[in-house]
Amino acid sequence: MATAPSSTSSVITLTINGEKYTLPVDHRTTLLDALREHLDLTGTKKGCDQGQCGACTVLLDGRRAVSCLQLAVAAEGREVTTIEGVAEGDRLHPVQQAFLDLDGYQCGYCTPGQICSALAVIEEHAAGWPSAVTTDVHPEAGPPPLTADEIRERMSGNLCRCGAYVSIVQAVARAAEARATTTTTEEAVA
Q: CA 67 to CA 70: how far, in whole Å?
C-alpha cells in the first residue's frame, strides 16, 4: 500500500541484490530498517544501531556501508547488496564457503555483516588499497601481502561477540587466495 509523498516521506525505488523495490519511507528511515521492516530482508542484522558493531554491513555500489547509519532515501539509485544476494543460486559464494568450512560462523549473528565486509576487504586489497598496517603505501608496490594483521585491521569494524576472530581471519585469507587463483587462471586463459 503506497502512500503519497509528503514533506516527511517519499516513495523511493531501491535496487537490492539486482531487483528493484518501490516503497514509501519516512525520510528518517535507515537502510537497515527499510531492508528488515519494509522488505523482509532480515539477513542484515541490527546490532548496536549506532554504526559501531558492523552487524548491519551491506555493500553499496560494492563498497562497505553500515546500513544503520545510511538513510534509505540516500541509497536510491545505488546498488545495494545484502547477504541474501551473495550466493549464486544454491551455490555458496567462496567467502561463505570459507566461513562455513573454517567455523567462522559461531552463533551467526554477526556473520552477514562479516561476510559482506570480507567481500569488500578482498576487493579493496586486490585493488591495492593500503590499510593502517600496510608498511609500503606506494602505489607501485602493489597489494601488500594479505597477512593476518592486514585482515584483522581491514575487518576491524566488524565485531564478533563469540570471539571467532581466528576462524574469520582464516576464512578471509582462504577466500582471498581462492579469488587470486581464479583471477590468475582467468587471465592466463584470456
A: 5
The per-residue pLDDT for 3 is 61
- Residue range 36-80, pLDDT digits in tens: 999 999 999 999 999 999 999 999 999 999 999 999 999 999 999
As a whole number of angstroms, the distance between CA 30 and CA 49 comes to: 10
Distances (CA, A) of 33 to 14, 63, 99, 119, 190: 13, 19, 26, 22, 43
* E strand or H helix that includes residue 130: none
At residue 170's C-alpha, the angle toward residues 41 and 120, to 5°, is 45
User: Which amino acid type is present at position 127?
Assistant: A
The kind and range of the H/E element at 55 are none
pLDDT of residue 139: 77
Helix axes 111-126, 165-189, angle to 10 degrees: 40
Q: Could you give all domains of the chain from N- to C-terminal order, each with its CATH number?
A: 9-85 (3.10.20.30), 94-189 (1.10.150.120)
- CB-CB contact of 169 with 96 (8 Å): no
Reduced to 3 states, what is the DSSP secondary structure of residue 9? Answer: strand
Residue 8 to residue 182: CA distance in whole angstroms: 48
